[in-house]
Write a structure and sequence with these properties.
alpha/beta; Rubrerythrin, domain 2; Rossmann fold; Ribosomal Protein S5, domain 2; nine-stranded mixed beta sheet; 12 helices; 21 strands; globular; binds thymidine-5'-diphosphate; binds magnesium ion; Ribosomal_Su5_D2-typ_SF; hydrolase; DNA repair; DNA repair protein RadA; nucleotide-binding
Length: 458
Amino acid sequence: MAKTRRTYFCQNCGFESAKWLGKCPSCSQWNTFIEEVVEKGGTKVPDWRTEKSGTLRASKAAAIHSIVYKEELRIETPDQELNRVLGGGIVPGSLVLIGGEPGIGKSTLMLQLALTLPKLKVLYVSGEESEQQIKMRAERIDQSSKASCYILTETATKNIFKQIEQIAPELVIIDSIQTLHSAHIDSSPGSVSQVRECTAELLRYAKESGTPVFIIGHITKEGSIAGPKVLEHMVDTVLQFEGDRHHVYRILRAVKNRFGSSSELGIYEMQGAGLREVSNPSEILLSQRESSLSGIAIAAMLEGVRPMLIEVQALVSTSAYGTPQRSTTGFEAKRMNMLLAVLEKRFGFRLSIQDVFLNIAGGLRVEDPAIDLAVLMAIISSQQDIPLPSTVVFAGEVGLSGEIRAINRIEQRIAEADKLGFETIYVSKYNIKGLDLNRFKIKIVALSKVEELFQQLF
Ligand code: TYD
Ligand code: MG
């Protein structure tokens, strides 16, 4: 009889070690090592391999020009946002991981997909909820669904594959990978080796049968997919579902995609009856605007490759305490401090005795440096209590000496502002070389310094 093999795994990052360690050398976390049984006695062959394909097929090398490439027939889903993020639909035989914090709406998104694919037989495997709970959710999302969707509440991979053989689904959804367990591994569900083994079995099934498989995975507080990073390497596509749970907007972002661009993203709104696609984000993000308030500036930002206009709100008020408060939501605090220092040092605004609060509307988190200019203008507008015209948009990065720097994809941003009926856009002078300005109706003002902007607007 073969011996049992045991190793220690870091439960945070999946690092493997032969002996127990107090601190993980890979992710520097303390006390994360747990002993797991990697191989039980007897030969370790997952069911799928023995029951379905018998012996493993040996591959032969082929010259690259002799390989015939067929344009894969993608499955187009009714969800245009999902199609976009996947790179144009679901690729047969692909393994897609959907990560996100608990409660963000992963199960809702997947169930909605299952219910809106009328031509495909879908198997929804849930290890988290009962059949009744899923039915209840399905009723909320779509009561008149004609989809042939099967629900299985099971966590043992062996039984799941048995059901798969009976039902022969054309799409499989697993909710979630952390609840599955394989009989070949002794450790508990959710542990690194279980997650890895279960994913390997699903991967094998997806590739051999050509059935696409969606796996839901939870995300830890640190923001990585719970359990191991290895999961991300094994799957074809990693989608991240994110957003603030208290806001209604959700972003589905492609983190890795073997079949498309990884800078795509989809936007949804969480409603009483499931998730609704948001095909024109700017209109919604700007719709609640009061034109005559100070401290508000509109930025033309880019999320992935999608341009959208967003409202930056600032509040500057005299500090009641010795140490003024600085607080940001949706924008990096360090970056705001830098911009405040630029205003203080270069232009003499006395901000060091004032509280500054900054908020990006809609609960989005923006990393695009192009919103610097709008942040700066919102702060000044609030400090001076002078509202900015409601028809202007800003798109520019601000440097340490108060210069307006060029940003990427300026044309797309201008086009978006133009489309939404804005009258003026302020951009960097270095951005407009070779640009056909007459193409747009919007007035494009190109500047090199922040002072010039102050002169024009205040
Ligand atoms: P859920 O899909 O269960 O999240 P996850 O699987 O990522 O943990 O969604 C959880 C939240 O979504 C829950 O707080 C309720 C809300 N929700 C709606 O607002 N409308 C709906 O139609 C549904 C189904 C859920
Ligand atoms: Mg869930």
